[in-house]
TrEMBL record:
Entry keywords, A to Z: Membrane, Transmembrane, Transmembrane helix
Protein name: HD-GYP domain-containing protein
Pfam families, per the entry: HD_5
Family matches, as PANTHER family: CYCLIC DI-GMP PHOSPHODIESTERASE TM_0186-RELATED
Keyword Glycoprotein: no
Matches recorded under Gene3D superfamilies: Hypothetical protein af1432 (1.10.3210.10)
Cross-referenced InterPro entries: Cyclic_di-GMP/3'3'-cGAMP_PDE (IPR052020), HD/PDEase_dom (IPR003607), HD_GYP_dom (IPR037522)
Domain HD-GYP: 212-407
SUPFAM superfamilies to which the protein is assigned, alphabetical: HD-domain/PDEase-like (SSF109604)
Organism the protein comes from: Zoogloea oryzae
Residue intervals passing through the bilayer: 20-38, 180-202
Length: 431
């Protein structure tokens, strides 16, 4: 069925804390990562813009004359311009891409060789080429600025290579770190603010779910008991057969979810008898073939009664198929072997066993040994042999505890079973 609900306030707090904590952690990591990359991109763009502005200082009339002259006259002017900015190096090219000047300051020879080997990217007029260059541990900015003459013609290029000073690098790191931490902090703070609201909503949702589940269980108990009282004069049959079914399912290692379906189906297995005329249902003697045919319609009638109830969809397989036989001679569908759902095969064994060992208006109860012999004899034809064998192992102990228990004790045991398989903190009294 549905995922188990928290059974205590501590479990409720724990579940919400874990889930909200995981969600907040994931969102914080995503937000922090996005902020990190955004701030890194912004810092890099700011550095590129700064390097570009510095490179533009060299696109001066003096530089235009130097390039136009085709020889390195005016070096003093270039040196003066170069001293104004912090550059690793500077190269000047004419319009054909031939170098006419370079100055690498005090840079290492190995670094200069790498930078000289960089192919010149020649942007169009009014465009600038800029990029990052990684050389060892150096993170450098490479900018190429076109130089135009007085007549607007492209006369050459200035290529500058610069590095960020320590203060700028530290400022960028601080900016990136601050942005990422701000994003993470905002997510965590939001999670703390939302926690009380989400806890209240979860409590309300849990209460409503429990109330709905309580109502469903109370309804099937009441309906099942009403049919049992009409058929056998007592509701103890439903309690006994349900407890037998739970014990057998546990012995077979059936999942808790399937056992919950088994419990619901056990209580409503004969709900279709509501549609059987009393003259047939309450007849003390043997039924005629025509009457038997009518009686055998109760599984179909029961299925029709619960059709449309999603909560009883799985339980309906017991209502419809608890009279099927392994050899295909059962009713209403004549299913064979494993065509019969597992929980219906389990219930078929305990239903027959309880019918044999119970007192009815038309018969006395059968003893344990005789009932077990019948179950064993019908194994392979009526019952699944694996299920019948498992029941043989647990039947004596279950029979003693269940048949000797008063109705109130049976109700209490069923109540405990509902707590195990429906995971409810509080259940209404079993009536």
């Amino acid at each position: 069925m549905s995922r188990p609900l928290p059974e205590t306030p501590g479990q409720l707090h724990g579940m919400l804390t874990i889930r909200l904590g995981l969600a907040a952690t994931v969102v914080a990591l995503i937000a922090g990562g996005v902020a990190y990359f955004v701030e890194t991109y912004r810092a890099e763009q700011a550095a590129l813009e700064q390097a570009t502005r510095s490179a533009r200082h060299f696109a001066t009339p003096a530089m235009q004359m130097i390039v136009s002259a085709g020889r390195p006259d005016g070096h003093d002017e270039l040196e003066r311009l170069l001293d104004k900015s912090r550059f690793v190096g500077l190269q000047v090219f004419d319009g054909d891409g031939d170098q006419v000047y370079e100055n690498w300051g005090s840079s290492a020879v190995s670094l200069i060789d790498v930078l000289r080997a960089q192919a010149l990217k020649r942007p169009e007029r009014h465009q600038i080429h800029r990029t990052w260059i990684e050389v060892g541990s150096e993170h450098l900015i490479h900018v190429v600025v076109p130089i135009s003459g007085s007549d607007g013609r492209l006369v050459g290029y200035v290529r500058t290579v610069s590095r960020l000073d320590a203060e700028t690098v530290q400022a960028q790191r601080d900016q990136v770190r601050t942005g990422a931490l701000t994003a993470v902090g905002a997510v965590v703070a939001t999670a703390f603010v939302l926690y009380p609201l989400m806890l209240a909503m979860l409590r309300r949702s849990t209460d409503l779910s429990r109330s709905l589940l309580d109502s469903n269980l109370s309804l099937i108990r009441s309906l099942g008991n009403a049919v049992a009282k009409k058929d056998s004069g007592t509701d103890a049959h439903n309690y006994r057969v349900t407890l037998y079914a739970i014990g057998l399912a546990e012995a077979l290692g059936v999942s808790a979810e399937d056992i919950s379906h088994l419990v619901a189906g056990a209580f409503l297995h004969d709900v279709g008898k509501i549609g059987i005329p009393d003259s047939i249902l309450l007849k003390g003697g043997s039924l005629t073939p025509a009457e038997l045919q009518v009686m055998q319609t109760h599984p179909v009638l029961g299925t029709e009664i619960v059709t449309g109830n999603p909560w009883l969809q799985e339980a309906a397989v017991i209502i419809r198929h608890h009279h099927e036989r392994l050899d295909g001679k059962g009713y209403p569908d004549g299913l064979r072997g494993e065509e019969i759902p597992l929980i219906a095969r389990i219930f078929a064994v305990v239903d027959v066993f309880d019918a044999l060992t119970s007192e009815r208006s038309y018969k006395s109860p059968m003893g344990l040994d005789e009932a077990m012999q019948i179950i064993l004899h019908e194994s392979g034809s009526h019952f699944d042999p694996r299920i019948a064998t498992a029941f043989m192992d647990i039947a004596p102990a279950l029979y003693v505890t269940i048949t000797q228990a008063e109705t109130n004790e049976l109700r209490q045991r069923l109540h405990e079973a509902l707590l195990r398989y429906f995971k409810l903190g509080v259940l209404p009294p079993v009536v």
